[in-house]
């Protein structure tokens, strides 16, 4: 298997120290890649989840998934060897358009999301079935396969994770103010459009790339459940973000291990662990009240 350069060589050397049969040196690189992917995308979903929940954009990732599906259909029609990159471009354009329309129209987020989502999925189905084509070749996107993850895409998501972390460190207050009260943020000189656009583009790229791993049917839950659970426990913003990230990482690791040992879908397994975690935090909140 292609090991993906020095970074992956180092990662394989670290994983070789783990006490699992799949961690033995020189074997099962697909599982080692999947473990690294989970460790990269889980913190991303945990962080971005806090913004999605605060901005009341819970179905934004669904709409992005539909746009990514349309991008893949366009890439396939154009004969691209890797249609996923067309999906990334399409999703980024979608995110910018969504942000611009929402700011210009003043409509509620759910209304704009509904407009974009329905249009994107209709266009995707139209293109996929054009000329009597079959929709079945896209069925794998609905469930996903984390064991098919490629080192190059993990590296890209790792770069995005670093960018998001830098954004959080440099402009956390502006980001949160833009999410909670855009008008007040505008009055304070915050460039709300660009704050929203950058975050929406980050969500778009993360959703599009990880969609083939965790599945379009459950990817929305990964952007909602971590922060929803964290809100039940956190007493301040720092705790809110920390609990969201830790919950996402724990569920990601547990879901991957469950998927490997019992042969279930990794995306569905991660989602069920997150749902269980939400139920636990909800009961703890009720008891605390």
Structure at a glance:
The protein has helices at residues 5-15, 29-54, 60-77, 84-105, 109-128, 140-143, 151-180, 182-187, 192-214, 219-222, 225-233, 237-262, 266-288. With 289 residues, it is mainly alpha-helical.
Write the layout of secondary structure elements.
Elements: H1 5-15, H2 29-54, H3 60-77, H4 84-105, H5 109-128, H6 140-143, H7 151-180, H8 182-187, H9 192-214, H10 219-222, H11 225-233, H12 237-262, H13 266-288
Order of helices and strands: HHHHHHHHHHHHH
- The number of distinct β-strands equals 0
Distance between the termini: 54 Å
How is the biggest beta sheet arranged? none
| Strand-residue proportion | under 5%
Shape field = globular
Q: Structural class, please? A: mainly alpha
Q: Mean of residue pLDDT?
A: 83
pLDDT < 50 stretches: none
**What proportion of the residues is helical, as a percent range?**
over 70%
Radius of gyration: 19 Å
**Helix count from the secondary structure assignment:** 13
Detailed description of the structure:
It is a single chain. This protein has helices at 5-15, 29-54, 60-77, 84-105, 109-128, 140-143, 151-180, 182-187, 192-214, 219-222, 225-233, 237-262, 266-288. With 289 residues, it is mainly α. Helix 2 (29-54) packs antiparallel against helix 9, helix 3 packs across helix 4 (84-105) and helix 11 runs parallel beside helix 13 (266-288). Helix content is 77%, strand content 0%. The longest helix is centred in the middle third of the chain and has 30 residues, at 151-180.
């Amino acid at each position: 298997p292609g090991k993906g350069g020095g970074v992956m060589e180092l990662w394989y050397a670290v994983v070789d120290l783990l006490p699992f049969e799949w961690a033995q040196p020189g074997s099962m690189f697909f599982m080692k890649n999947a473990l690294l992917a989970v460790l990269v995308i889980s913190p991303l979903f945990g962080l971005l989840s806090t913004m999605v929940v605060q901005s009341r954009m819970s179905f934004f990732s669904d709409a992005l998934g539909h746009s990514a599906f349309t991008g893949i259909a366009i890439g396939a029609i154009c004969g691209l060897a890797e249609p996923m990159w067309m999906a990334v471009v399409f999703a980024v354009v979608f995110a910018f358009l969504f942000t611009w329309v929402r700011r210009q129209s003043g409509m509620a987020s759910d209304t704009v999301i509904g407009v974009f989502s329905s249009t994107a999925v209709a266009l995707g189905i139209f293109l996929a079935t054009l000329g009597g084509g079959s929709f079945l070749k896209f069925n794998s996107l609905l469930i996903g396969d984390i064991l098919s993850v490629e080192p190059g895409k993990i590296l890209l998501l790792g770069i995005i994770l670093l960018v998001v972390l830098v954004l959080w460190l440099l402009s956390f207050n502006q980001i949160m103010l833009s999410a909670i009260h855009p008008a007040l943020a505008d009055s304070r000189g915050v460039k709300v459009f660009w704050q929203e656009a950058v975050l929406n583009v980050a969500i778009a790229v993360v959703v599009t790339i990880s969609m083939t791993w965790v599945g379009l049917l459950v990817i929305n839950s990964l952007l909602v459940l971590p922060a929803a659970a964290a809100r039940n426990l956190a007493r301040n913003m720092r705790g809110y973000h920390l609990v969201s990230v830790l919950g996402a990482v724990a569920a990601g690791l547990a879901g991957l291990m469950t998927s490997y040992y019992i042969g279930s879908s990794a995306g569905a397994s991660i989602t069920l662990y997150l749902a269980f975690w939400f139920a636990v935090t909800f009961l703890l909140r009720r008891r605390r009240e």
